[in-house]
Specification:
Blueprint: E1 3-8, H1 13-23, E2 28-35, E3 56-60, H2 66-79, E4 85-90, H3 97-102, H4 104-124, E5 131-138, H5 161-180, E6 183-189, E7 192-193, H6 202-215, E8 221-223, E9 229-231, E10 233-234, H7 235-246, E11 254-256, E12 261-263, H8 264-273, E13 279-282, E14 289-292, E15 298-302, H9 320-326, H10 334-347
Parallel strand pairs: 1-2, 1-4, 2-3, 4-5, 5-6, 6-11, 7-10, 8-15
Antiparallel strand pairs: 9-12, 13-14, 14-15
Bound molecules: NADP nicotinamide-adenine-dinucleotide phosphate and ligand G4F.
NADP nicotinamide-adenine-dinucleotide phosphate (NAP) binds next to α1 and β5.
Length: about 350
Amino acid sequence: MEKIAFITGITGQDGSYLSELLLSKQEYKYIFGIIRRSSKFDSSSRIDHLTSNPRFILKYGDVTDSYSIINILKHISTLKTDDTVLEIYHLAAQSHVQISFEIPEYTGQVDAVGTLKILEAVRICGMIKNTRIYNATTSELYGKVVESPQTENTPFYPRSPYGVAKLYSYWIAKNYREAYDMFVCNGILFNHTSPRRGENFILRKITLGISKIYKGTETKLVLGNLDSQRDLGHAKDYVYGMWLMLQQDAPDDFVLSTGKMYKIRHLVEKAFKHINIDIVWEGSGLDEVGVDKKTGRVLVTIDKKYFRPAEVDELLGDCTKAKTILKWHHHYEIDDIIKEMMDFDCKN
Ligand code: NAP
Ligand code: G4F
């Protein structure tokens, strides 16, 4: 069966791994993606190695600009037959939770209304038939969790402008599924990371910071809340789950998670072990420090600027539904992920 894919957020962590996955499958005639204009050319560094492939096509676009989406869909419609399946992976987002408190309106326009624009563009272009849409929602929907672990049936309680915007995105996708019989799946994905993770998300900040301490270019790591807990997987496992959702006979919503959660302080300890440093914690609150057990050198300090106005204390997923229906399971454990990221950051 011939397929065409269209990825929003193609320059991001998940977009890059998903592009590699789809290019490895010959049934995808083309993989389209939108990139945003940037004042520097390096904003596409995660996918630069793919751009020489003639099946990989990038266009300028923005999910806040309906015309750019409609134009791409119109272009795609000229390349497909009635039987070609179009898979849209809607990954574009202002994806940083803390930053969403600083740019709440913009976050709403991209993460909430952006999803509506994708769904409406498909509808008004008359492309509902044979189009399947993956919508990137998040475990941040659970926010101040009302039960643990969280499943597809756990009530939502978002704790940030990002979480609230994704709540709209989740419901508008479900509404279009019910109202217009669209094939739309919400992926409720727990944190996933990799060496391609943005540098201001926690585990990448930790591995990059430690690699700089190792190389002697930085002296310490400055962090926020060490006691929140996250269920962390590898992005490669998670993009495979996105793909599986669109290969089912009927659209549905799925949690993807590892079922294990770790405190941020334990991630710090695990990552430092890769450069043979044992961290011990001294003091409390904003005065807490992480000290090299052997030398007594202070390597981790706390700054209140990294604390959020409202925190999500813990997230732990139960992905039994994805295991049963999609036959999805994660391959990477936390120690594999930290090793890959530490090796990558220490080398580069
Ligand atoms: P990411 O690395 O931050 O990538 C975000 C992508 O969205 C980038 O390609 C970015 O483009 C693009 N983008 C942002 N605003 C846009 C706009 N207005 N128009 C078009 N593109 C725009 O995020 P990720 O980790 O790959 O996550 C992918 C999706 O999954 C996001 O929707 C995120 O919210 C969601 N999610 C992520 C996780 C996770 O742990 N990684 C978990 C649950 C859900 P630029 O490169 O130009 O900035
Ligand atoms: O790495 P984070 O910024 O990720 P967060 O907030 O969990 O969000 C990520 O996962 C979501 C899925 O659950 C995605 F939807 C979302 O797009 C994003 O990918 O922070 C993780 C935890 C937080 O509790 C934060 O308070 O780490 C804590 N933290 C402590 N110090 C820090 C820092 N987070 C960051 N970014 N930087 C710090 O210095």
